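hey can u run this one w/ nicotinamide-adenine-dinucleotide bound, need the structure tokens asap thx
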Amino acid sequence: MTSTIFKKHIVCIGAGYVGGPTMAMIAARCPEYAVTVVDINPERIAAWQTDSLPIYEPGLLVLVRESLGRNLFFSTDISGAIHKADIIFVSVNTPTKTYGEGAGKAADLQYWEKTARTILQVSGSNKIIIEKSTLPVRTALAMERILNANDKGLHFEVLSNPEFLAEGSAVADLENPDRVLIGSRETESGLKARAEIVDIYAHWVAPERIITSNLWSAELSKLVANAFLAQRISSINSISALCEKTEASVGEVALAIGTDSRIGPKFLNASVGFGGSCFKKDILNLVYICEHYGLHEVARYWESVVMMNEYQQQRFVTNMIKVMFNTVAGKRIVLLGFAFKANTSDTRESPSIAVARKLLNEHALVVITDPKALDNARIDLHDCAGRIEFCDDPYEASRNAHAIAVMTEWDHYCELDYARIFKHMEKPAFIFDGRNILDHKKLFTIGFNVFSIGKSPLKHF
Ligand SMILES: NC(=O)c1ccc[n+]([C@@H]2O[C@H](COP(=O)([O-])OP(=O)(O)OC[C@H]3O[C@@H](n4cnc5c(N)ncnc54)[C@H](O)[C@@H]3O)[C@@H](O)[C@H]2O)c1
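ok here u go:
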């Protein structure tokens, strides 16, 4: 069903961190397609049409504005949009199951299946359905079976086009992706649908960066990409623990190994650990799938990446308590940053959550500051109301504090006036740099006791 104005109607189900930016980019680069993003959350849909977008990403507001109302639309009329659509991207959340079989590991596919059933119910024409969400390998098979078990004579071609954008650089990643991956059945109708989707991306992505594959390779590649990225972080973090015992410096080790072109320099920053909605969820999903196929050794191997991440977060807090004379009770401790990484407001699985909770358990007075993520922080820690302070201004936050912990690598944290901060802190004053972004020698000269990740501490006692 195409209108006379637009070549095709694209619909995206799920207006989140992936659906919103991805569709804004497609709309901007493909003005002849109508792109409608739908969601069950009316507040989200409303916010996409204002200057206060529901998520923060550098460059996103300008991108959305380019096409909003022209060929980019946001709506809660899911059935109406599906009915008109030729191509449907499904970008709903796929969290880890919290109940029943596979709880804590398997993907919870209830939102996914509901979406498939809605598509089936309201469709009156053939459609291409694209898995944009990250899903267990072979999910497309279930999707195909649900959709094509219809008595309307309709055909639904299911493809996998996983999204590789990183939050914080979503617009740049979409504009200039390392690759776009499109998996389909290798049948006549599968290859035809694949070509249609290639055509969309070819509006702005060079042909050699558009990779095509079979459906299962595309589904699995997304899980594996996240597993490998997280594995690198856990690998360097494991070495950071060893560095702290041996007076080696993890930054120097990372530089030395990263210059080997077989290893490469990226993703070798030791830190308090990875966060975000995807890494842990996708690895646990991989672990579950391996167990399902009886590959227990493979499952244990990948599971250790998550365990190492938890160890690193735990180690960070344990070290804080130990060096602050074995108690933080009643001490004001500032978390500098709450987002799971810089340039995003997203706090899902942020190490700050675990660190804040552990400090609260030790009866510390926790103060949280972040330039973009305070609203989400308030939601994440709603059960701790009254025991925790949220503060926009890092200078105010650190007044009378005993310690500062850098949790997010926001650029401007490097440019704060630490001499001014030191002056109004309790002494001895501590800085725990969970991202290794500050000038540690300078801080030490100011008077701070400085503890970083994978480096010998600089202390005045
Ligand atoms: N966030 C990332 O950086 C990222 C990157 C790549 C891939 N992914 C994957 O993309 C998927 C979406 O992630 P996200 O971060 O955008 O999630 P999100 O939670 O930000 O957005 C998902 C949206 O889907 C909506 N939704 C859920 N069920 C629905 C339904 N039945 N009908 C209509 N809308 C529905 C929710 O209301 C929500 O707004 C996940 O599978 C995730 O693993 C995420």
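The two ends are 74 Å apart (CA to CA). anyway lmk if its weird
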